[in-house]
Every structure is written in structure tokens, then in C-alpha cells.
Write a structure and sequence with these properties.
- It comes from Acidipropionibacterium virtanenii.
- This is DUF4143 domain-containing protein.
- The strands form two sheets. The protein has a six-stranded mixed sheet with strand order 4-5-6-7-9-8, with helices on both faces. It has a three-stranded antiparallel sheet with strand order 1-3-2, sandwiched between helices.
- The chain contains seven helices and nine strands; from the N terminus they run H-E-H-H-E-H-E-H-H-E-E-E-H-E-E-E.
- Helix 1 crosses helix 2 and helix 2 crosses helix 3.
- With about 200 residues, it is an alpha+beta fold.
- It has one domain.
């Protein structure tokens, strides 16, 4: 189990490839699957399923996997607070921050009045949205997580694509960032500071 958790922490907020992870850990995939179920039951990890307008594709696509405790994820990959800063390693900071946001949203959606489910999005053209929230009636919000205080319209590119694809079903797109200021990026899309999660 410790080796599996370390390997998952090293791949925090990335798509889960069970065969690749099993090879990294040195166990058969048939052993790894129940272990992942156990880690999820113990609230150590969460699987974030892929989102698509095609329900069949949604069911067969790979989930992303993230540790629910960002401090544990950082410790398992031996990264200090300074080492996780965007100036030290943007990739490490980005993956840890994405996992952190997913964990915080999971908490909020658990007690929210409206039932929503959390997904991630990736298409064949390279389009990616870190998190998608979908309500039971089909309304969708997209969230991009950026480990930087300097965001621009390019960071909302795929949110805008999703807005155009979904029309009225798309209710809001957020680019969460580490800076202090909010900025609009067009119709129903804006950049907002990370602390919006607690306000």
C-alpha cells in the first residue's frame, strides 16, 4: 500500500492507467484494482471520471486520480512547501493544486443543496478542462486550476470551446488562480482568486 500511494502521489491529478501503475508498483493489475477501491473507501484517493456528452464514451474513458490530502501527497513525493511553489516547479505545484481544488469541491458538493457530480474533460484535439461540475438537469460548469497569479485569455480557451459546444447548458467557467484579482474572460467565463472556494 505505501508504494501504491507514493506512485499515485507522483501522478497526482493525472489520468489513471491501471496497467502502467501496476507496472510501476510491481504488482499485477488484478491486485491493484481492489487496492484502489480500498484506498477510495478509506478517503485517501478520489477518482474523477471523464466527462463527455456521449454517455458511452464517458463510461469507458480513464478517470483522473488524486489524493484527497494534498499535504500527504506532497510528503509522499518529498516536496516541501517551498518546493511546491509555482516558482520552484510549476508542474508539481499545478498537480498538487488541482488535487487540492478537487478535494475542496468534493467537500462542498457533499453538503450543497443541488446534487452535482465532478468530472474531468479531455478530447482528441488536446483540449482539457481540469474539472467539470454537472447538475442532474444537465447544466455544466467548468473549472481550470492555474498555479500562477498571471492568467490570460489563453487559460480560458477550452472553457470557451465548451461554452460554444454546450450553449445554454454551460452556466459558468472559472479559471482559479493564486493571484488577488478577478478578471472577466467573456460571456460566463472569468478568472477568480483561489479563495473563492471558501467565500
Amino acid at each position: 500500500m505505501p508504494g501504491t500511494l507514493r506512485a499515485l502521489a507522483a501522478q497526482n491529478s493525472e489520468e489513471l492507467n491501471v496497467a502502467g501503475l501496476a507496472s510501476d508498483v510491481g504488482v499485477p493489475a488484478s491486485t491493484l484494482r481492489p487496492l484502489l477501491d480500498l484506498l477510495e473507501t478509506l478517503y485517501l484517493i478520489q477518482r474523477i471520471p471523464a466527462w463527455s456528452t456521449n454517455l458511452t464514451r464517458r463510461a469507458i474513458s480513464r478517470p483522473r486520480i488524486a489524493l484527497l490530502d494534498t499535504g500527504l501527497a506532497a510528503r509522499l513525493v518529498n516536496v516541501s512547501a517551498d518546493g511546491a511553489s509555482p516558482t520552484a516547479s510549476g508542474d508539481v505545484a499545478g498537480h498538487l493544486l488541482e488535487g487540492f481544488v478537487a478535494s475542496e469541491l468534493r467537500k462542498r458538493t457533499a453538503w450543497a443543496e443541488e446534487n452535482t457530480r465532478m468530472y474531468h474533460y479531455r478530447d482528441r484535439m488536446g483540449g482539457e478542462i481540469d474539472l467539470i461540475l454537472e447538475s442532474g438537469d444537465g447544466r455544466v460548469a467548468g473549472i481550470e486550476v492555474k498555479a500562477t497569479s498571471n492568467v490570460g485569455g489563453r487559460d480560458a480557451k477550452w472553457l470557451a470551446m465548451l461554452r460554444e459546444k454546450l450553449g445554454a447548458r454551460f452556466v459558468r467557467g472559472l479559471v482559479l488562480h493564486t493571484g488577488p484579482e478577478a478578471a472577466p474572460f467573456g460571456d460566463r467565463i472569468e478568472a477568480v482568486p483561489m479563495d473563492v472556494l471558501w467565500s
